[in-house]
Design a protein that fits this description.
16 strands, 8-stranded mixed beta sheet, 2,3-Dihydroxybiphenyl 1,2-Dioxygenase, domain 1, 5 helices, single chain, alpha+beta
């Protein structure tokens, strides 16, 4: 029983309008679902992905309008990578970042891969990673109506980086409870720090990796706008998700039990360094209540919230920077 890779990453924004503008206009991702936080429907939950909202391509944001700034530190998901097709694509993105005055560090290397570290308008820590040498999980397809180059466009989520003070308990959960194996390591960009360890699951590659950074010198992160809330890993179906829950129970790891998120089923738990993990099924997917050609155009609510639509819409500020089309 193996996890198939990264399913989605969910982060925090203080401004849905500016967030939507950055991820659709500048990064060219598609808004595939405009919904609300199912546990607090007064806030937006925006989903950006490839053209079909494929599992493994989905970066989501909860809008918390009063969120303060993030005080970066350990016990955190400190970086989220986005995959691009090849090394040449990074040259395109350098030029685009210059045109849009995006804060970035230029093309560097991460092991044998080329990357660009950059930040959005809320200091969300992001990485573009080249799939030039990828031989693992396949990426998705950039949206054909993207405002960025389709040829050089983002094809999915790459590795997430976890920053922790003590790696051993996290490694134990990744390798003994989940299906990850250490496959590589590369030097930390911070002088004097330990190598960053690479763990992969399933077919491996850029879409199925967790990178583990040890930073005992940092305080615990205080999350806010621009921080990551959780990372989710891909599970084939409901039956396998139930088996994963049994495994967590057998290991005496507290968990949420299976939660129906309408577009997928989910299971939540925290690893020993306090980082929130989610296991999510690949289906049924975002076309459950909208057709592929019209994803993200209207406010989508799961059935149990539909009778509250008028009240929910009255509390949300409409997005004016366009829809998913």
């Amino acid at each position: 029983m193996y996890l198939k890779g990264i399913h989605h990453v969910s982060a925090i924004t203080a401004n849905a309008e500016k967030n939507h503008q950055f991820y659709t206009t500048i990064l060219g991702m598609r808004l595939v679902k405009k919904s609300v936080n199912q546990d607090n429907p007064a806030m937006y939950h925006l989903f950006y992905a490839d053209e079909a909202g494929s599992p493994g391509t989905d970066l989501t944001f909860f809008e918390i309008s009063n969120a303060g700034r993030t005080h970066q530190g350990n016990h955190s998901i400190s970086r989220t990578a986005l995959r691009v097709p090849n090394d040449d694509a990074l040259l395109y993105w350098e030029n685009r970042f210059n045109d849009y005055k995006v804060d970035y560090d230029g093309i560097t290397t991460q092991g044998e891969r080329k990357v660009i570290h950059f930040r959005d308008h809320e200091d969300q820590r992001l990485v573009l990673i080249s799939d030039e040498t990828n031989q693992g999980v396949s990426g998705g397809n950039p949206w054909k109506h993207s405002q960025a180059s389709v040829e050089h466009g983002i094809v999915g989520l790459g590795p997430v980086t976890l920053t922790v003070p003590d790696p051993k308990p996290t490694i134990n959960v990744l390798t003994e409870i989940l299906s990850f194996q250490q496959t590589d390591k590369y030097p930390s960009p911070i002088d004097g720090q330990e190598d960053i360890l690479v763990f992969a699951t399933g077919e491996g590659g850029t879409g199925a990796e967790v990178h583990l950074e040890v930073r005992s010198d940092l305080p615990k992160e205080r999350p806010g706008r621009g921080s990551v809330h959780h990372v989710a890993f891909r599970v084939e179906n409901d039956e396998e998700l139930a088996m994963w829950q049994e495994r967590l129970v057998d290991a005496r790891i507290p968990n949420s039990g299976v939660v129906d998120r309408y577009y997928f089923k989910a299971l939540y738990f925290r690893e020993p360094n306090g980082i929130l993990f989610e296991l999510s099924t690949d289906g049924p997917g975002f076309a459950t209540d909208e057709t592929i050609n019209h994803l993200g155009e209207t406010l989508a609510l799961p059935p149990f919230l539909e009778n509250q639509r008028a009240e929910i819409e009255s509390k949300l500020t409409p997005l004016t920077t366009g829809t998913g089309t």
